[in-house]
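User: I'm new to structure prediction. If I give you an amino acid sequence, what do you actually give back? Let's try with this one:
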Amino acid sequence: MTARVTRRRLAALAAGATAIAPAQTPVEDDLTIQRENLRRNREQLAKTQLPMATEPAFIFKV
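Assistant: Good question. You get back a string of structure tokens that encode the predicted 3D arrangement of the chain. For your 62 residues, that looks like this:
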């Protein structure tokens, strides 16, 4: 037996699932996490030695 699911029923199920989903982390926590990630990325980039003769991977066209 195959259960047929209409688009309306599928939409209702999806809407119900999002209503039951747990609340997201507060914005402050997300901001703190992203700032920490940015700080770590900057530290990693600062450790990388790149010669001045290195050409960029793009070309400016006028």
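You can read the tokens as a compact description of the fold. Here is one thing that stands out. The two ends are 64 Å apart (CA to CA).
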